[in-house]
Specification:
By secondary structure, this protein is mainly α. The protein has 10 helices and 4 strands; from the N terminus they run αααααβααααβββα. The strands form 2 sheets. It has a two-stranded antiparallel ribbon. Helix 1 crosses helix 4 and helix 4 crosses helix 6. The longest helix has 42 residues.
Length: 256
């Protein structure tokens, strides 16, 4: 299977896992006391859009536009906790867990993929955070959460429209880059300095090698230096013996 296709499948597996885990928490009133208000206004918004699509409402009327803007803001207002829980969950899963699993999520493990540095360096948690900010739309979610408190109804509506277009644009660019590029690196990979590679076993050999830590790399260099010194010492001893033998031979010849 092509690496780009494997990446897309792995991503959807991971998103599904996060959704299954997070959804119950979002619907617990003790954690999210505004869940009923959110559901109420979301249903009203859905019905309004359905009526507009059925031609029951004049979509060009100011009344319709005001209702859309008003409901959009109320949904966002009561969705802050939902969004916050989602952001935290995405960071935990795609940043912290992936860091401790050395570049793998559950989806990547299933599809035998791993995130590594594009420059053969050891990745730190910051690399995974940058990837997740872009790939999982975390940066856009944070902008919308903050926007609820900074803007009024009209300002937030305009902001949400701009963010929606940017989300679609960024995701389209990522998918196109992953599918069309030879190295399958997306926009998030370029910004984080990472790449995703296959860890499938081929001819009993793993395709990707673990990147050694700085300590292991230093120890390896020290061992190589010691190994290089050994022949040098032996060569010096051999040279010394050869010189000594030449001197003895010279003395004998002189005596003769």
């Amino acid at each position: 299977m092509d690496t780009s296709l494997k990446r897309i499948i792995a991503y959807f597996i991971d998103i599904l896992i996060v959704s299954i885990v997070v959804t119950p928490f979002i619907n617990i009133k003790a954690i999210n006391p505004y869940i009923d208000d959110y559901n109420k206004y979301y249903e009203e918004y859905t019905k309004l859009i359905e009526d507009a699509n059925n031609g029951d409402i004049d979509t060009n009327s100011d009344e319709y536009k005001d209702q859309v803007i008003d409901l959009n803001y109320k949904i966002a207002e009561y969705k802050v906790i939902n969004s916050s829980i989602s952001v935290v969950s995405l960071i935990v899963y795609f940043v912290i867990i992936q860091y401790f699993l050395k570049g793998q999520t559950i989806g990547k493990k299933i599809l035998k993929l791993r995130v590594v540095s594009n420059k053969d360096k050891e990745l730190n948690i910051g690399h995974y955070f940058v990837r997740s900010l872009i790939l999982n739309n975390i940066i856009f979610s944070i902008i919308l959460i903050v926007g609820v408190y900074l803007f009024g109804k009209n300002g937030y509506y305009n902001l949400s429209m701009v963010v929606s277009y940017l989300q679609l644009l960024v995701m389209s660019v990522i998918i196109l880059m992953v599918v069309l590029r030879r190295d399958n690196r997306g926009l998030h990979d370029f910004l984080a300095g990472t790449k995703v590679i296959s860890t499938e076993v081929i001819n009993n050999e793993v395709e990707v090698k673990e990147i050694p830590s700085k300590k292991e790399e230093k120890e390896t260099i020290e061992v190589e230096v010691k190994e290089e010194d050994k022949p040098t010492k032996n060569n010096n001893k051999t040279k010394a013996k050869t010189t000594s033998n030449k001197k003895k031979s010279t003395r004998k010849n002189s005596g003769n």
